[in-house]
Amino acid sequence: MPDLRKDPITGRWVIIASDRAKRPNDFVREPVEVRGERICPFCPGFENKTPPETLAYRPSGQEANRPGWALRVVPNKFPALRVEGDLNPQGEGLYDRMNGVGAHEVVIETAEHATNLGLMAEQDVANLFFAFRDRVLDLKKDPRFRYIVLFKNHGQGAGASLEHPHSQLIALPVVPKRVLEELSGATKYYGFRERCVFCDIVRQEMHSRTRVVLETEHFLAASPWAPRFPFETWVMPKRHASHFETALPAQIHNLGQVMRSLVRRMDQVLENAPYNMIIHTAPVQEGPLEHYHWHIEIMPKLTRVAGFEWGSGFYINPTPPEESAKFLREATVT
Questions:
Q1: Is 113 annotated as catalytic?
Q2: What structural domains does the chain harbor?
Q3: pLDDT tens-place string over residues 94-110
C-alpha cells in the first residue's frame, strides 16, 4: 500500500510507493567515472587557467596562484551573476527586474584530480566546509547579498561539468523561494509549539533510530521522514544554530568526519552514483533565528523528476527512508 507522508517543515507531500519498492541494485545508475582530462584547469600547474584565487589553503609564505595549495577558491570563469554594479531594481508594468549582481565562486577541494569526498582525508573534507565558512563570512559584509547558496554537484548526472572535485557558492541579492518556504514553515511551527522544528526532528530521530544513518558528537545523519528522493539524507547539527557560518572549528572538523563517512557509505551502497549536496542556512543579513536550524541535504540522482512532480508538487519515492537508512547504516566503511 503506498504511503503519503507530509514534510513537517514545508508541508510538502511525498508518495512513498512501497508497492514498487526498490533496493539499491534495482536503480539504473550512471556511476561517476574519472576518465581524466588532458588539460584540467583545476589541477596544479594550470592556475593561470582560472581567475586569480580569492582564498587558498597553502603553506604560509607561498606565492598565490602557484602550485603547492591544498584548496583554492576562485571566481567562476563563467559566472551566473557578477559582483560589479548596482542592483537598480525597477518595474516594467506588473513585472519586476534588477541587475544580475551577485558572486559566483568555485571551491577546488583538493589538488588531486582522481578522488572524491569519500576518499579524501577527513581534514581535507573539513577544509571544504572551512572554505565555505570563510567565504560566507567575507561575502556577507556586502549588504547587497541577502543569501549565499553553498552546493556541490558530483558527477555529470548531477550537473558537474568538470571531473576535478569542486563545489560552488552563489551569493544572491534576494532570498530564494525554496528558502522562504522552509523559513515560513519553521516560523509557523515555532509559533505553535515554541520549539524549533529541526531540533524536534533531531530529538525524535535520535529516539526512534529507524532512520538514523550515523551519529557523532556534534551531528546526526538521517533519512528524512518524507524524502523526495531515494536515499536522500540530511546532516543536522545536534546543537541549535541558524547560520552555517557560526559553526565552531570543532564542529567543522567533526563535519569532515561525518561527510567522509556518509559519502563512502553512499558510494558503496549506490556504486558511486552522482549526487547533489546543498547547505541550507539562514539569510546572511539576519541575526540568529530561534526557529531555524542550518543543515545539509544530500540527494543521490537515482530517479528523474517528471510530469506528475512538476504538475502537482508531489514527489514519488520508491524507497522508504527506513530502508534507505538501514542500507547506509549497515554499509562497511573504514
A1: no
A2: 3-31+38-79+97-329 (3.30.428.10)
A3: 999 888 999 999 999 99
